Amino acid sequence: MEPLRILISNDDGIFADGIRTLAAAASARGHRVTVVCPDQERSATGHGLTLHTPLRAERADALFAAGVEAWACSGTPADCVKLALFHLLEEPPQLVLSGINHGPNLGTDVFCSGTVAAAMEGILEGVPSMAVSSACFQWRQFEPAARVALEVAESTLAGGWPDQLLLNLNVPPLAAEAMKPLRWCRASVRRYEDQFSRRVDPRGRTYFWLAGEAIVDLESSGEGPEHWPSDVAQIVAGGPSLTPMQPELFWRGPLAALPPLAPDPVPSRPAGA
Q: What are the tens digits of pLDDT across the range 34-61?
């Protein structure tokens, strides 16, 4: 494959091991890599954009492998990709990679994921994009995930990346030789228990900490072919999960299931009123 112009972002910030491993691996394969990512941790920011304060971006090449151009941005992951595409890059990228995230982005968790939002921003601007996550918060061996991500991206581009296709890749916390084969997966419906921890500060005031644990549900899933495993089931089985996504969220259920519309709440007005 000819060298690609790759934009890489994340939501864990400029100092995260995952993004540096991914950028180094892409550069080692001969690709031209530019990193534009948050200057600090921005996890679970979803597709938030900065509207009421200025954005700042500073060069951070020294934090990355030789040949990687890097910028640390004060905004969200979506800000970073938008700023890169419209201002920082001299040429548009041929691929956007977001990650490698320090933790999973499975099922409906993608709605609050800054990692997925950065990739989605690329898709919205017509650039093939993939979110990449290591499915364990404690795992720090990112090289296998980087290898899987780049092989998937390169082969998909070579075969013709469909318009509006966002790939969401999650890789289990295993050495490469221990992983089972990559599979297409359905997106799970993620549920949590004990979502908030109620605590009391030193002044006696109550506060809450979002600290729920995901319920491991191997069957629950949303749309997708029935013979595909759910992404959660695939990770538990020890294989990387690849879920196709798109920005269009229109209802795909039967139209008969929609509730009837209420009568027009605006009363008729006399002609000329």
A: 999 999 999 989 999 999 999 999 999 9
For 81-141, the DSSP string reads HHHIIIII-SS--SEEEEEEEES---GGGGGG-HHHHHHHHHHHTT--EEEEEES-SS---
Q: What is the pLDDT of residue 179?
A: 97
Kindly state the helix (H) or strand (E) to which residue 69 belongs, with its residue range: strand 69-73
pLDDT the model gives residue 273: 57
CA distances in angstroms from 238 to 58, 170, 171, 174, listed in the order given: 39, 11, 8, 8
Residue 151 tokens, joined: 């092989």
What residues have CB less than 8 Å from 25, skipping those under 6 apart? 143, 146, 147, 150
Distance CA 81, CA 96 (A): 8
